[in-house]
Amino acid sequence: MYLVCGLALFGCSNTTHTIYHEQTVSPEIHTPEKADRESVQTSWLEDFVIERDEEISEDLLEEPDTLYDSIFDITPRADHWIQRFSGAERKYFQDSLNRFETLRPIMEDILDQHGLPRDLVYLCLVESGGHAHAVSRAGATGYWQFMPGTARIYGLSMNRWVDERRDLEKSTAAAARYLKHLHRIFDDWLLAIAAYNAGEGTIFRIMRNHEHVRAFWDISQEMPIKGETLEYVPKFIATLTMAKNREAYGLTDPPDEKEILQYDSVTVNSFFYLDEIAEILDVPRSTMLHLNPELIRECTPPLKKQYTLKVPKNSGEALTAHLAEASRSSVTYTTHTIERGDTLSGLAKKHATSTRMIAQTNRMAVNDILRPGRILIIPTKTSPAPVSSRHTHTVAAGETLKSISKKHGIEVQDLIEMNRISDPDTIFPDMVLFLPPKAAPRGSPTVKTTQYRVKKGDTLWGISKQFEVTAQDIMRWNRLRPTAQIFPGDQLTIYH
Q1: Which of 6, 367, 417, 432 has the fewest Cβ atoms surrounding its Cβ within 10 A?
Q2: What is the CATH number of domain 330-436?
Q3: Residues contacting residue 167 through CB under 8 Å, at least 6 positions apart
Q4: Under CATH, which architecture does the 437-496 domain have?
Q5: pTM for the full model?
């Protein structure tokens, strides 16, 4: 898995400085004893080799039968990588190791849950340097560099909205299941690690055709295997050995615990852009992108009714409370791939919505050119909202704007303007309409309507204080989502 980006553990160096340390602690990774390795028969192995497009059965996901303690020999090939990482590439290795430390505890916990050695976590460092966005030339992606076929076998979803190979927890759990399967096949951790890089079929065929191969070190470059795989295991041993013995190799200690990645998980029940959540929590947009790298379009999947987001530690309750208080309606969404001849008005009429709502949802202007092939998110329907009935009306079968206006004692035009209705014939049963304030009785102060143009620096909260109304009222009157952004030049209708 040759990386285009990520930790440059596959780079080249001519470093010749050799370092040996007697105080080096043996890694915790385990391998079977020689007698156990020799007992592996190819006929038994053949039963466990699966094709990449097959579903993996539950019996292959059982815990490894036994783990055996073993001390790794620092072979010349492993020592070569130790020389590189402790020589000219030490700074890069140190920086990558420190960055990886923010993720390592989370990954170790997941490996623990699957009954695997915690030190297998350093495979991720070799694979991607702990970069969620690492992509190989062959298309392997994410923390653990899964190819699409293998990713699907082990339960990871990939579509136009989400790539779970970039999800920290889900990809690590998938890698744990795959490594457990490989260990079950080969009963040897170094062979399993080699198979993670080369594929179990490659290692199996070598063992079948070369009877003396019972351990990774029995494999030679004369056999049908990539040079990358022959270096992969020694590189892993070097990485693990140095990471577990930092002082001995002149590396600094792990970062302080406060730097370890921490987050809360919050389930949202509607479509959101990540920068909307960032604005609610008053955190940088980059923070939300860092926590949710699997959202490849920087938004939650619009066709899912629920999605669990990662948010900064200790902010989950605040976000949940905010969304519960601010939410005034629930909109369902569909998607549409633009075809030649499509217009926003035509799509709005087809989906019983408005051009303004489509434009706002897709962060575009109503007069933008629609380019064929672009995917639009279409808000299709507003369901009954948990607000006072004096502020909303749920359309019943057979009702018209005229009958609704008469029922509530308001003007049809006011109802049209408040709900941004481009075509009065597009209202439909169960649609929720926002109602403007009724005209005041004679002798009472009249209700004024102001068309307010947003200025630079304005916020909904500031505008609401200016007109002595609530921010929720402004959102309701203008059909704004709870996390909607306003921009200079936008026009808001204010009743006061």
Answers
A1: 367
A2: 3.10.350.10
A3: 142, 156, 293, 294
A4: Roll (3.10)
A5: 0.68
